[in-house]
Design brief:
Largest sheet of chain C: none
Radius of gyration of chain A: 21 Å
Distance between the termini of chain A: 58 Å
Oligomer: heterotrimer
Strand content of chain C: under 5%
Number of helices of chain A: 9
Largest sheet of chain A: none
Structural class of chain C: mainly alpha
Chains: A mainly alpha (about 220), B alpha/beta (about 260), C mainly alpha (about 220)
Order of helices and strands of chain A: HHHHHHHHH
Shape of chain A: elongated
Helix content of chain A: over 70%
Largest interface: A-C, 40 and 39 residues
Order of helices and strands of chain C: HHHHHHHHH
Structural class of chain A: mainly alpha
Helix content of chain C: over 70%
Distance between the termini of chain C: 47 Å
Number of strands of chain C: 0
Number of helices of chain C: 9
Chain lengths: ~220, ~260, ~220
């Protein structure tokens, strides 16, 4: 069959489901990755010594361990410890661990760049440490770390494709199956690539727009 | 051999617009060997643009520039050769941040003039001594004060043995205490007979060093004359106010 | 079965995998540098068509997931060109093309962060455009880019593990094969994770050392 027929009548319609799975993976991982990242960053800056060491270990491990290996550990390794999480959950967990580790580094840097006087002033108003971190420091830190966080989000979009390697049939997996069935490899992966490109580009543009609208990097 | 008094630089009908803003209107003048001409005027009257049109870092819309009898405008690839003979000193120094002071002075000698390393080193040392900074030769620009940095950039330009030096507001970016050392160096060059075009805000300095002062406004030369002429008989109203204001400013505290 | 025993037994196998992995990393970084730097120069100083082409290349190779790129080349492009080359080199090609795109962006940012005055000063001394680029712009750009470039190392190291998908015998592939034979998944994978972390650490130390040796006092750095 010719390429146009393949692309428009077969490939694109059948990618729909995979595409939704990819969106689900991202929708679940990204917010959690941000929240956990905030927690880990706070732990590293404001925690007690054991907490700081733990948080640092978390970051060192999940940044240094390749994502695919992490997915293998969760999907192939955990069942042997009696924790069979299943493919989708393993994937989401893996993404959260990885994404949060990188996010925490950006947020940590942002926290350090906030003047100490802010913390002192807030405490002088009677806020507890926890309240200061939650209402004064974190909002500013997240704003400042926004470019880095958006960058990691874009990596997440791309790395979601690795879920296929632990049998989650997301976009890439769906594409590969179709390609194998119809023996149209170059065309399939090219179109697949374009879909990711569009996702990434739309996200990048949206990020610029959000940054401008909320004047996030004000200082 | 060019004798003193020969015309070194000829500027004819220079005009330049940026968008709808005309910055230079039909500027013409000549510069003789050993002369120092100062350009004074409010900001944004195109003085910097004028200097940059002379060495074609900015290309004028119309007009011609001649260095001796060679045309600088429309010089094509020969412009690099011609630029070697015109030294430029910038308001922001523009020292090469990744090189020491000495290497800043040497680099053009090595790459453009293709000098031998030892000759370049000697020449660089000579020029740094001339501006009084031999002991700072191995410092990086970030380690120098503003006045020192500017003096190094003067040495860098001088090392090429230019026929004319172009100074674009050499002290405007400096703290007041540091302008003196730079102005002293420039006065020294004038004494040594260097031909110079200086764009500056320092009226007192201009009065003391210039052979002719040109006052620019709205892209044109509004008034020109020797320091004596301008001081005793400033015809143009604005010039008079400007000079008067500067004169008050340069009067030492305690004087009447 | 004792993990330590297993690891000892399989250590030559893993060592080979480490060499493959490091080989992928070094070749990919080298290719990325060799093509990325000229592309960055092309984007800053080149003609309009050149800028668009390079821009498209960068957009494409940065936007696609590594996995999709690997599949594209392994299943699609190389077979359709009738090229039967070892998977290792397919990995090198893909990672290299990707690396070039990333590095082009890093160097482009560095070059564009250099103040205009530097080029003006160089030209005013009579340097030609290329002399100015070579003597003044590039040295500074390389210094500015170094921290950002160092970050390429851990990224590329992670990307090598994705080459598992096309069967390159790097670390992750070999680890999986050990697991397949011995069935002790968790300990093996965690051990290999630690190995990756160590490789990461060693590489970053080396790069930081390079940074320290090469840095110029007070040099204005761009924070990426």
């Amino acid at each position: 069959m010719d390429q146009a027929t393949f692309i428009f009548d077969i490939l694109i319609p059948n990618l729909g489901e995979g595409f939704l799975v990819t969106l689900a993976l991202i929708a679940l991982s990204a917010p959690c990755g941000l929240l956990v990242g905030m927690g880990v960053a706070a732990g590293r800056v404001y925690g007690t010594r054991p907490l700081r060491i733990l948080a640092k270990g978390y970051v060192v491990f999940f940044k240094g361990c390749p994502l695919l290996l992490l997915l293998f550990i969760l999907y192939f390794g955990l069942p042997s410890l009696g924790l069979p999480l299943g493919a989708f959950l393993s994937a989401v967990l893996g993404f959260i661990f990885c994404n949060s580790a990188y996010n925490s580094e950006f947020i940590r840097g942002a926290i350090h760049s906030i003047k100490e006087g802010q913390f002192t002033a807030a405490q002088a108003l009677g806020m507890s440490r926890g309240q200061v971190i939650r209402y004064i420091i974190m909002p500013q830190a997240v704003r400042k770390a926004f470019p880095g966080i958006m960058n990691e989000f874009i990596y997440l979009i791309k790395f979601s494709s690795l879920a296929y390697m632990i049998t989650v049939i997301e976009l890439t997996g769906a594409g590969k199956m179709i390609a194998t069935k119809y023996f149209m490899f170059t065309e399939t992966f090219f179109i697949l690539g374009l879909v990711y490109l569009v996702l990434v580009s739309v996200t990048t543009v949206a990020a610029h727009f959000i940054e401008k609208k909320y004047r996030i990097i004000a200082q | 051999m060019h004798t003193k008094g020969d015309i070194i630089l000829r500027v004819e009908g220079l005009s330049k617009s940026f968008g709808s803003l005309q910055v230079l209107r039909d500027i013409s003048f000549t510069v003789r060997k050993g002369e120092t001409k100062c350009f004074i005027g409010p900001s944004g009257t195109g003085k910097s643009t004028l200097l940059r049109c002379i060495n074609q870092l900015t290309v004028p819309d119309s007009g011609r520039v001649f260095l001796f009898d060679q045309e600088v405008t429309n010089a094509g690839p020969r412009i690099n050769e011609l630029r070697q003979r015109m030294g430029m000193v910038f308001q922001n120094f523009n020292l090469f941040d990744h090189l020491t002071a000495r290497k800043n002075v040497e680099i053009a000698l090595l790459r453009v003039k293709r000098m031998e390393a030892s000759a370049a080193r000697e020449k660089a040392g000579f020029e740094l001594r001339r501006v009084g900074l031999e002991d700072k030769a191995d410092q990086y620009p970030a380690q120098l004060s503003g006045g020192q940095a500017q003096r190094v950039s003067i040495a860098r330009a001088l090392a090429m043995d230019p026929d004319v030096m172009l100074f674009d507001e050499p002290t405007s970016a400096l703290d007041p205490e540091l302008t003196g050392e730079v102005l002293e160096v420039i006065k020294g060059l004038a004494r040594d007979g260097m031909t110079m075009l200086i764009v500056t805000h320092e009226m007192g300095f201009a009065l003391s060093v210039a052979d002719e002062i040109l006052f620019m406004e709205n892209g044109q030369i509004a008034e020109r004359g020797t320091p004596e002429e301008l001081m005793t008989n400033p015809g143009f109203d604005r010039t008079r106010r400007f000079i008067g204001r500067i004169r008050d400013f340069t009067r030492a505290p305690g004087e009447g | 079965m004792d993990t330590l025993q297993v690891l000892m037994e399989w250590s030559p196998w893993l060592l080979q995998g480490t060499i493959y992995t490091l080989g992928l990393v070094l070749l990919s970084l080298a290719l990325g540098l060799a093509f990325g730097l000229p592309m960055a120069l092309g984007q800053v100083y080149g003609s309009r068509p050149a800028r668009y082409c390079i821009g498209a290349y960068v957009w494409f190779f940065r936007g696609l997931p590594v996995l999709v790129l690997l599949f594209l080349f392994y299943f699609g492009i190389f077979p359709s060109l009738n090229l039967d080359i070892p998977v290792f080199f397919i990995g090198v090609v893909v990672l290299g093309l990707r690396g070039a795109a990333y590095q082009a962006e890093i160097f482009r940012g560095a070059i564009q962060s250099i103040p205009d005055g530097q080029m003006l000063a160089a030209r005013s001394l009579g340097m030609s455009q290329w002399q100015a680029i070579g003597s003044v712009i590039l040295p500074q750009a390389l210094l500015i880019a170094l921290p950002g470039w160092s970050n390429e190392y851990p990224e590329v190291l992670t990307e090598t593990s994705v080459c598992y998908a096309i069967g390159v015998l790097e670390l992750l592939t070999r680890a999986s094969q050990i697991v397949a034979e011995t069935y002790i998944a968790m300990p093996i994978y965690v051990s290999v994770a630690i190995l990756y972390i160590l490789l990461n650490y060693a590489g970053m130390q080396a790069l930081h050392g390079l940074e320290r040796r090469v840095m110029v006092p007070g040099f204005a750095q761009v924070t990426s």
